[in-house]
Structure prediction request, 274 residues.
Amino acid sequence: MQRKVLFFMFLFLQVKLFAQSDSLVLRDLTLDNTAPAGMTELIIPSGTSLLAGFMYRANGSQKHPTMLLLHGLPGNERNLDIAQFVRSKGWNVLYFDYRGSWGSQGTFSFKNCVDDVINAVEFCKKYQDSLKIDTSRIALFGHSMGAWVCIKALEQLPTVKKGFALSTWNIGTYYNSISPKTGRNLFMLNANLEDLYNSVDQNKVKYNLINDNFESFRGKQIFMIDEHKFNSKLAETIKKSNPSSFEYLVWQTDHSFTNKRVALMKRLVEFLNR
Prediction:
């Protein structure tokens, strides 16, 4: 009897340890012969411009939940390892470059970035049958500036119920990195850096998320992770808006979450599948 008790205690501890570990079990997909997972290049209309994008299609002929992957400024970190993993869990992942960035047509601006997301969601609705998108389960994932865009767009998208904001760059508070005086190399953006800087400098309240009205977040699910505590007050403000679920974590890592990729992927997929 005692040996049985010890065995089950050992088993329980092993299961608990595995559940808490930052590890993943990865397996190759068995492709559906009629509708295999793959990649589709896309051209997405936004305003009078066209955005360059693509979709990692999930496996199977049914409609799939779909995550929009929103990159930062200028978009060197694309988080496509996360996109591949999310796709392996049955989600489509749509990636695109904002207007005026990385070859997409138009002029880059922060407002245009938000509008681009709204237009991309409309694109998903329009082509839901051919792209096999379950429009009732669209989620936004944004990193850095993309997290700011994620939160702003989520306020204007009543049918999108999930937003994951990774290391949010709250532009109205920390915008000096786009100053033309810093000499930052942003040649891949079709934008006048002085105009971009001045648009924020002259209206810091508008670009500071903490001043937003998050009443539209009621009934939505929000997850924020940072590598610093600068956004603690923003997290408190969003939480007070009473979303259906909210979680905020601060991890010891860098801006690209270099040493936390596995933990990040696990948290994201758990959040998406709630």
In short: The domain at 35-272 is CATH 3.40.50.1820 (Rossmann fold).
